[in-house]
Specification:
Layout lengths: L1 E12 L8 H13 L2 E3 L3 E12 L3 E2 L6 E12 L10 E6 L2 E5 L5
Antiparallel strand pairs: 1-5, 2-3, 3-5, 4-5, 6-7
Length: 105
């Protein structure tokens, strides 16, 4: 049900964050961009796990942000095909149902 997936992205770090610890800034940007979001062919990203590789930051001409290529791992909710999940029906109407799985609705 939960797996760890490797993702890669180029993140922009704005100048206001240059004084902070770069690791904390990168984790915050990854969490902001990916946590609680569904990524196609990956699943529902739950939380940041760790870094696999962190590239060198680049500042492009006429732009103040530093862009950094980062390869990282995320904890992802992705049920396997054929896996049976048990939940409780919270609400049902003509548009569909809301089901609580215990850890999220």
């Amino acid at each position: 049900m939960y797996v760890i997936c490797v993702l890669e992205d180029k993140l922009a770090i704005v100048p206001e964050q240059f004084g902070r610890d770069p690791t904390d800034v990168l984790i915050e940007e990854i969490e902001k961009k990916y946590s609680n979001k569904v990524v196609l062919d990956v699943g529902l990203c739950v939380m940041f796990y760790d870094f696999v590789e962190v590239g060198v930051p680049y500042v492009y001409p006429a732009e103040g942000s530093a862009h950094q290529l980062v390869k990282f791992r995320m904890v992802v909710f992705r049920p396997w095909e054929g896996e049976v999940l048990t939940g409780t029906i919270c609400d049902a109407d003509g548009n569909g149902m809301t089901i609580s799985m215990g850890f999220f609705n």
